[in-house]
Every structure is written in C-alpha cells, then in structure tokens.
Design goal:
The complex is a heterodimer.
Chain A lengths: L1 H5 L1 H26 L3 H20 L4 H22 L1 H25 L7 H5 L8 H20 L1 H9 L1 H6 L4 H42 L3 H26 L3 H26 L6
Chain B lengths: L4 E12 L2 E12 L3 E5 L6 H8 L7 E6 L11 E4 L13 H7 L2 H4 L7 H13 L15 H13 L5 E5 L7 H16 L3 E5 L3 H7 L2 E6 L1 E5 L6 H8 L26
Parallel strand pairs in B: 3-7, 3-8, 5-6, 6-7
Antiparallel strand pairs in B: 1-2, 1-4, 8-9
Helix pairs in contact in B: 2-5
The chains are: A mainly alpha, B alpha/beta.
C-alpha cells in the first residue's frame, strides 16, 4: 500500500480521482435530481466528436471538446425546454453523431494510432500536474456557482413552473446547469475517460440520494462516495493490475448496490434516522 | 387607477399544434372571488390555468391579472401545481420548500434573510407543519405535502392563489383541511382560482364557476344547471340536488392527464 502511494503516477491518479469526485459529486447531484443523466451522457459522447476534430487538426484536445460539449449541451437544453418528450430523440442523435464523428476523424488522421479505450476509460494513471491544476480550478468554479445560486438551483430543480412564477430566471439557471455539465465533461474526459465521467455523475449521486434529506447534504455525500470509490478502485486496480477507470466504476456500483439494499431493509425494520 | 377586477379573460384562444384547446373564452372575476374551473379531462382546465399564470402564451385574445399581463404580476400570484408533476422523493425538507416561495423576491445570488426564515416559520406554524419542519418531504403523507405546497404558495403573501387539482392524491379529511385553509384565505381577501374534478367541492366553497370543454361557460353566481354540465362534459353527468340547486356530484376521480 505504502509502496503504491510513493509512485508519482499513483499520487497524481489519487489526486485526479479526488478532484473529479468533487466536481462530479456536485454536478452529478444536479444531474440525478433533474433527471438529466441522458443529456449528460449525450454531452459526453458529443464531446468525443470534438476530440476527433482536435486530433485531426493537431490541436490540444480541449480545443475540440469544449466547443462540442458546450454547443451540444445548449442544443439539447433548448430541445428539452421546447418539448421534453421529443428531446430524447435529439439527444440520442447527437450522442451517436458525436461518437461517429470522433471515430471517423481519428481514423482519417494520418499516422495516428487511435487508442479508443484510453478515451473511453481514461488514462487516470497518466494525469499531468497541469491537468490537476485545471481540475482544481473547475472544482472551485463549480462549487462557487452552486454556493452563489443555491436557492435558485434548488427552486428550479424541485419545481420549474413554480420557480418561473415566483420570478426566478429559470432558463438562465437551466443553461447554467448544462454549462456546468459541459465543462465538467471536458475537464474530466481526458483524465478519467468518457465512461467514468458518466459513472461518476450518476452512481455517487444515486448513493447519496438514498441517504440525504436535502440537496446540500446530497452533494457532500456524493463527493464522499465518489472519492471513496476512486481511492478504493485505484488501489484494487493497482494490486490486481486491472484498468483503473473500469475498476473504479465496479467499486462504485457495488457500493450503490450495498447502500440500496441496506436502506431498503432498514426502512422495513424502522424509520430511517434523520428528521 | 386600481381596479377591483382580479382577472379579465377576453376572447382567449389557444391550440396545441392543430388541436384547439381553448376556443374564444371570455370571463372576468372580481378581487376576493373564489373561482372553480371544472370540465372533462382534456377539456382545457389546466391549459387555462397555465395561460393565466403566464406559463403559456395565448394564440389570440388577452388575459389581464390585477390590471396587467400575467408576466408582470408574478410577484402577486401563488400557485399549487398538480402533485403528480412533482418528484415526491426529492431531497428537500419541509422548511426549504416553504422558503422556496420567497426565492424570486429575495433576488438572485443572495441567501435568505433571517426575516425570510421567520416568515417561513410563521407560515409553517399556521399550517401545523412546525413539528415536521426538518423532515424531508418524502416522509410526509399526501395531505401534509399538499399543506407544504400551500405554505410555499402563500409565504410571499400573494393577492391571488391558483390551484390545480390540489386534493387529487389525498384522503377526504386532508382534503377538508386544505379547503378550510383556502376558505380562510379567501375570507382575508385572497382571490382563489381552483381547477378541480371534484364537483362536490364547488357547492361548498366556490363563489363562481367556469365550465370548460374547449368552450367556456361562466357562472358568476356559482350555480350550475344540467344543460351546461351536459354541454361541457359532452355526456350527461348526474346532478343530485338535495334542495340545493348547485350541489353537484359525479364519479370522475382525479386520474389521468389533462391537456
């Protein structure tokens, strides 16, 4: 254990996992309570198209993923605002199109040996110091935005119509949520990969949803659950020599299953504590 | 000039695509009225409510609330949505939901003040919610949750209150309690607009009635006759009059969606 921590790459991976857990715990909570998992998945996959563009033109990855994920999140948010039922199809199409653009452009890039897996499951063991700094910055911005607009975000998440009638700028708050999703996806896609971003959005927040009585505590518990899963997952993957991202996801899923069963059986015996 | 009129609906038309939901509706009510809106499922009740709240824009005609378009009167209007549209397991406490009613007037990016918290506490006390103030809404009964929504709608002291099937998912005693609160509010001068399936409610609480099935029939004195009921519902619905001409019952319950 001590040996593992002494490797620089392991230290960076641990730091990346913890920083990712913070952003994903906060944004993931909002994704889960607003039922935005599908849109978040769509944004993450559309970002993959941006990655293809960046690789093809020899640009840094964020130069492609940032415009792609921001633009796709705005289009999906607009579609959802206009017609919630039909927006599903728009999200699904952009999801697939993003993936397709990414794959084709990477294939067309001369001399580039595409490593699809590394973008799907990330390369958390190869995170650089600059990446860590950017992730810390992202965490600060997201935490700051949620702190500042907490009461508006809560009102819009719980009941959009009431929020609109009581004078909250609902559309602006919705786009703020989407922008936070898009930025988190962009920052984390390289470090932890496409699949892990979606997993860290949804699984820790779902664990937290079972255990919390308000949005604030749900965010804190989600950060804890995400951090615990990444740390455990990293050590398991190190000792069993497994892909880090996939192992983290499995650890988180097992934890979710255990908490789900525990809260279910606990409810039958007596009332949950709190209240 | 501050008029005494609460709502003026004039030649109002609204369609979802090619389906006409509201066809040239017109009526007006005074401040302090208690309006019941009834009609069959898909007849346009909820659509009319949403138009009056400014959540939908009319295709034709106009709506005036307290002398201004709905978008301009938002601070003076309270609203209780159909509970089926809300996530009842949302992680939020009773106190936070009641406080939510003050979100808009507090100003964006600012936290609730101690005065806001006090207001919410007074409202919870009035509705008997103080003992459950720190509980998440998921642990409440349907009747309690409805009172929480009433508290949220009333905490900002609105001049008008709009309700969409407020008792669709609660038992009879909880229902009576909600309506008694509404009657009390109405007595203090709050104009109440209530969409309901429950014609029985009309007889006891409302002052005026609008029947809507695309077309709107307005009864300022709250009395309904069999001909109007037949016209709006498109089929005969029993009216059982026990000496009271407008005491009306029917056996539709609050299931289903309402365009």
């Amino acid at each position: 254990m001590v040996d593992a921590v002494q490797f620089a790459f392991m230290q960076n991976a641990l730091a990346a996992g913890l920083l990712a857990a913070v952003a994903c715990g906060i944004v993931g909570t909002l994704v889960v309570v607003n039922r935005l998992s599908f849109i978040a998945g769509g944004v993450a996959h559309a970002a993959y198209g941006g990655l293809g563009v960046a690789v093809f033109f020899g640009l840094p990855p964020a130069a492609g993923t940032l415009p792609f994920s921001i633009a796709s999140s705005l289009v999906m948010g607009y579609a959802a605002g206009r017609n919630r039922e039909r927006s599903d199809a728009v999200v699904g199409a952009m999801w697939a199109a993003g993936m397709a653009i990414g794959i084709i452009l990477i294939e067309l890039t001369p001399g580039y040996q595409a490593d699809l897996m590394s973008y799907l499951f990330g390369s958390i063991m190869a995170v650089s110091g600059t990446d860590l700094l950017l992730m810390a910055l992202l965490d600060a911005v997201i935490a700051g935005a949620v702190f500042l607009f907490y009461k508006e975000i809560l009102a819009v998440s719980y009941d959009e119509e009431f929020a609109a009638i009581s004078g909250v700028p609902v559309a602006a708050i919705r786009y703020l949520l989407l922008a936070m999703i898009a930025c988190t996806v962009v920052m984390l896609i390289q470090a932890v990969g496409l699949i892990l971003v979606i997993a860290l959005f949804t699984i820790p927040a779902s664990i937290a949803e079972l255990l919390s009585k308000n949005l604030r505590s749900m965010m804190v518990i989600a950060i804890g659950a995400g951090a615990g899963s990444t740390v455990c997952g990293l050590f398991v993957s190190y000792f069993l020599n497994l892909t880090a991202g996939a192992t983290i996801i499995m650890v988180a899923c097992v934890a979710y299953g255990m908490v789900y069963i525990a809260t279910r059986s606990g409810m039958k015996v007596g009332k949950r504590k709190g209240g | 000039m501050k008029s005494n009129t609460a709502i003026v609906v004039d030649d109002l038309t609204f369609s979802y695509g090619s389906r006409v939901a509201i066809d040239h509706a017109a009526f007006s009510i005074e401040r302090g009225d208690f309006l019941g809106i009834i009609g069959p499922n898909g007849g346009g009740k909820t659509t009319l409510l949403r138009l009056m709240l400014g959540l939908l824009r009319p295709d034709g005609g106009s709506i005036t609330l307290l002398g201004a378009p709905p978008m301009k009167t938002r601070g003076s209007v309270g609203y209780i949505p159909q509970e089926t549209n809300l996530n009842t397991s949302f992680p939020v406490t009773v106190r936070d939901v009641v406080l939510m009613g003050l979100t808009g007037r507090r100003g964006i990016g600012r936290n609730f003040s101690p005065a806001d918290t006090t207001r919410a506490a007074i409202m919870m006390e009035r509705l008997g919610l103080t003992p459950v103030g720190n509980r998440p809404i998921a642990q409440l009964s349907g009747g309690q949750r409805q009172k929480v929504l009433l508290g949220r709608a009333m905490v900002a002291d609105p001049e008008m209150l709009f309700l969409d099937e407020p008792t669709a998912s609660i038992d009879t005693s909880g229902e009576d309690e909600i309506y008694d609160h509404l009657r009390l509010l109405n007595k203090t001068g709050v104009t109440v607009v209530l969409v309901t399936h429950n014609i029985g409610v009309l007889s006891r609480y409302v002052k005026s009635v609008a029947c809507i099935n695309r077309q709107l029939y307005f009864h300022p004195d709250g009395r309904l006759d069999q001909a109007t009921i037949n016209k709006t519902f498109g089929c005969p619905v029993d009216i059982i009059a026990h000496g009271v001409p407008h005491r009306v019952f029917h056996d539709h319950t609050g299931e289903g969606d309402d365009g």
